[in-house]
Amino acid sequence: MSTTLFNAQPYDAAKVRRRRIWIASAILAVIVLSTLAWLNRYWPEERRVNGFFAQLQAKNYESAYSIWMNDPNWKQHPDQYKRYTFHAFYLDWGPGGEWGTVKSYKIVAAQKPRPNATGVVVGVRVNERKKLCSVRVEFKDKTLGFSPDEMVE
């Protein structure tokens, strides 16, 4: 038997209202989750730089170097790192380096300098200085490096 207008279900305003609320909630949830994902898209790289600066702040330069090179066992094969030795690293990041002894730091921003870039540049405010320290994190191997692209706040 077919349904006609004369025997159709009565209009249920509460059901329609619940459905609209559910749809609006789902759309809002998608927007919020998308925004959070977008804002935290470089979270792994920021976390890596945070760990690096935490080791510098603790004056644990060997551990900081292992994060920089992404090799916790770098002492077992230091000949692999002749391009940037621990001594050169210590001169750059130790007490006599450009940034001095790290007393405080804050990650300010992270961005991809170019659409085809192979890494992210993370801007860090070191010791309350106005100039940001720009550290590059490679996507492929998570090594850190000096960035040719300066971060500006």
Overview of the molecule:
- This protein has helices at residues 13-39, 43-57, 61-69, 86-93; strands spanning 105-111, 119-126, 132-138, 144-146.
- It has 153 residues and is of the alpha+beta class.
- The chain folds into two domains: 12-39; 44-146.
- The mean pLDDT is 92.
Compute the gyration radius: what is it?
Answer: 26 Å
The low-confidence parts are none
Portion in helices: 25-40%
H/I helix tally: 4
Q: How many separate domains make up the residues?
A: 2
Seen as an oligomer or otherwise, the chain set is: single chain
Overall shape:
elongated
Assess the beta-strand content as a share of residues.
Answer: 15-25%
How many strands? Answer: 4
What is the mean predicted local confidence, pLDDT? 92
Mind describing the biggest β-sheet? 4 strands, antiparallel
What structural class results from the helix and strand content?
Answer: alpha+beta
> What series of H and E elements makes up the topology?
HHHHEEEE
Tell me the strand order in the biggest sheet: 1-2-3-4
Instruction: State the end-to-end distance.
Output: 71 Å
